[in-house]
Amino acid sequence: MKIVFLHYHLKTGGVTTVIHRQIQALGERHELLVLSGEPSPRPLPVPVVHVPGLAYDSVMREAFPPPETARMIEDAIHDRWPEGCDLLHVHNPTLAKNAGLMKVLPILLQRGFRLLLQIHDFAEDGRPTLFNTDPYPANCHYCVINARDFAILKHSGLKPGGLHLLPNMVGPPTSPDSSKAAPSYILYPVRGLRRKNIGEAVLLSLFTDPQFPIGITQPPSSRVDLQAYEDWADFVRHHHLNVHFNVGSANSFPGLVNAATHMVTTSITEGFGFSFLEPWIADKMLYGRILPDICRDFQDKGLDLDHLYAKIRVPVEWIGEERFLGKWTAAVTRAATAFQVTISAADIDHGYERVKSGGFFDFGMLDETLQRRVILKVLTEPGVKDELASRNPFLIGMKNVSPDDDIIALNKRVIQQSFNRTAYAQTLIGIYENVMETTVDHRIDKTELIKRFLTPDNFSLLKWGRYGE
């Protein structure tokens, strides 16, 4: 097959990693071409063509009309193969990173190109600034990386014959550099975005073994996320807490993983969920917060994650109900406005009642200001730490974590069997064959899609609230 991969850029990141692994999985049995909106920062084992009209709007030096970008794409393909390609595999096209792309893809469809659109991230999932007001391309194939997203798109109008599930491949760990030993951390291998819930990692540090600090590997790059991250670093320094930031700057990542006592995650949102898989491949235990809608895929394959927690229950009175309700209602209303949908007052009321279920808020539903309020209360008020542990007994066990060799061996075996290169290649090629053989007639109902993500009872202020409000 002659396959074209298309993306905004090839900089280091999640989608670029997936593209690299897809190239590896397809190997030399297929002819491949990569089209990128920016020049590749490092060589790839296949030809790469720079198509400026595919770049982020924010870095584009000049605007390219959609027909011109479509022509650039077509010319690049015919320069490689005069007879054309079998299909275009387009990564993350629905995000409004490039305003013209939603108009480029229909042009390519009209010219007879077969399209497979792979969605890794949804703007509708807490990213209103990336929401594309244009209709999403109709009558082409889509694929997603987890069963939750598959169900959401199916309910939003896509037919099973043109909707495909492609879980990511999990590669082997990189061997550490033996010449430089890294410190031993309870490692949180993450770029510290707001939705990674850094405050919860700070809270956990109050219950973990004081010999080993929690180490957060990387800062975020966006301005708002970076401000929140730096404020947490200042808070930790001011209160002399056992959390180290930017530990990846002075240590290699393989070295950090090798030296880690174990690994932790507190994220409230994931796309695929590598953080729930990669520790086991490195023979490390994982502790922290589970995301049931993401991890269900892994558990169905046999992964044992029963020791993870789904929430940290904080009494409503520690926060102040009126304070939280005002922030939360404003965030829900603002999101509905941004996505041009209506959420009824009854739905908001019912959602809020579920949010404060049993007189408790989940710590992961709070914004950074409210999280700091809880942490200060634990630090300064007698009996509060014990009360929080009694409400969340798993916190008590955080101090004496030891490797469970049986769980590590089981989970490593499940991952190696289910997410290996051979299995991934078979799935990917099967999807390509389906795209080539099956004509589809469907479209995404964007209003329905938005409603699937805008569920008030799962509406975290870390994801939907404005920072510092």
In short:
The chain is α/β, with parallel strands linked by helices and 469 residues long.
Tell me the helix content. 25-40%
The helix count comes to 18
Write down the overall mean pLDDT.
94
Q: Give the spatial strand order of the biggest sheet.
A: 3-2-1-4-5-6-7
Keywords:
469 residues, alpha/beta, Rossmann fold, 7-stranded parallel β-sheet, 5-stranded parallel β-sheet, 14 strands, 12% strand
Description:
- The protein is an alpha/beta fold.
- It has 2 domains: 2-170 and 420-453, 3-Layer(aba) Sandwich (Rossmann fold), CATH 3.40.50.2000; 186-309 and 392-417, Glycogen Phosphorylase B (Rossmann fold), CATH 3.40.50.2000.
- Helix content is 40%, strand content 12%.
- It has 18 helices and 14 strands.
- The chain has helices at residues 14-26, 66-80, 101-110, 147-155, 198-204, 223-238, 253-259, 278-281, 292-300, 316-319, 321-338, 345-355, 368-380, 384-391, 405-418, 421-437, 446-453, 461-464; strands spanning 2-7, 31-36, 48-50, 87-91, 115-119, 141-144, 163-165, 186-191, 214-218, 243-244, 262-265, 286-288, 313-315, 360-362.
- The protein has a 7-stranded parallel sheet with strand order 3-2-1-4-5-6-7, sandwiched between helices. Strands 10-9-8-11-12 form a 5-stranded parallel sheet, with helices on one face. A two-stranded antiparallel sheet has the order 13-14.
- Strand 8 (186-191), helix 5 (198-204) and strand 9 (214-218) form a beta-alpha-beta unit.
- Helix 1 (14-26) packs across helix 16 (421-437) and helix 5 packs parallel to helix 13 (368-380).
- The longest helix is centred in the last third of the chain and has 18 residues, at 321-338.
- The chain is globular, with a radius of gyration of 23 Å.
- The mean pLDDT is 94.
